[in-house]
Structure formats: C-alpha cells, structure tokens
C-alpha cells in the first residue's frame, strides 16, 4: 500500500496529540538540560577558584524542539478545504506514526534530559 485516504479532522487530532506529547517532553528536557548546564558551570567556576585548569565550554547537546514541524502540518490541515487527505507512506509515518527523520535522536536526547528533573514542565519555555 503506497497511499491512504484519511479524514482530515482525525488526522488533525492525531498530529495535535503528537505535537503536544513532543512539546511536553521537550519542555521537561529543557529543565533537565538547564539543571545539568548549571551543575557543569558551577564545577567550572569551582575549578577556576581552586586554581585548576579552566574549561571554557559546556559540551552538552541541547534538547530537540521540533514543535514547528508539527505546527506547519497542523496549519496546513486547518487551512485545507478537503475533508479527506491522501497520505503517502512517508507522510503517514510522520503524521500518524510520529516517526520523523529526527524522531530517534530527539526522543533519546529529550528523554535523557527529562529524566533529570522531576518537576512539571510549566516553568520552562520554548526557545
């Protein structure tokens, strides 16, 4: 099967749900990332105060934020005049199965950072 027709409203709901899940994980990851960066900077400052070698960079990978990818699809679906949308296999993987080219990396990175912080994501913001 190379293509499938889906109801626009059902697809829209699915993409929104996937977007919300990604955003929630990203915001929590941003909190964990911030925590680790602060810890690293504190260590660097202490090393400098102790007269040790001074490192000048933090080498942590930033959390992955792909909300705009979802937003583009949501907006396209909201503006579509069609009640049914034809998806090819690749678009079905992205929009329904939530399997994008960047998914594996984003999930691994964001999950690792999200595990660092137990609080709610509300105090973090998207960049």
Structural class comes to mainly alpha
Low-confidence stretches: 120-124
How many individual β-strands?
A: 2
Approximate shape: elongated
The largest sheet is:
2 strands, antiparallel
Identify the strand order in the major beta sheet: 1-2
Indicate how many domains the architecture comprises. Answer: 1
CA radius of gyration is 20 Å
Order of helices and strands: EHHEHH
- End-to-end C-alpha gap: 39 Å
Average pLDDT for all residues: 92
Figure out the total of helices: 4
Strand fraction equals: 5-15%
**How helix-rich are the residues, as a percent range?**
55-70%
Structural features, described:
This protein has four helices and two strands. It has 127 residues and is mainly α. It has one domain. It has a two-stranded antiparallel sheet. About 4% of the residues have low confidence.
Which key phrases capture this entry?
8% strand, 4 helices, 58% helix, two-stranded antiparallel ribbon, elongated, mainly alpha, 2 strands, 127 residues
Provide a quick synopsis of the model:
This protein is mainly α and 127 residues long. The protein contains four helices and two strands; from the N terminus they run βααβαα.
């Amino acid at each position: 099967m190379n293509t499938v027709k889906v109801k626009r409203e059902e697809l829209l709901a699915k993409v929104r749900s996937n977007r919300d899940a990604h955003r929630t994980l990203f915001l929590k990851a941003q909190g964990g990332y911030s925590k680790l960066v602060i810890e690293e900077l504190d260590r660097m400052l202490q090393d400098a105060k102790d007269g040790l070698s001074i490192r000048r960079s933090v080498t942590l990978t930033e959390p992955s934020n792909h909300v705009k990818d979802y937003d583009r699809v949501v907006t396209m679906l909201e503006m579509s005049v069609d009640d049914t949308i034809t998806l090819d296999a690749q678009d079905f993987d992205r929009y329904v199965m939530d399997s994008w080219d960047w998914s594996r990396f984003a999930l691994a990175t964001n999950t690792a950072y999200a595990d660092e912080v137990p609080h709610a994501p509300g105090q973090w913001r998207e960049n």
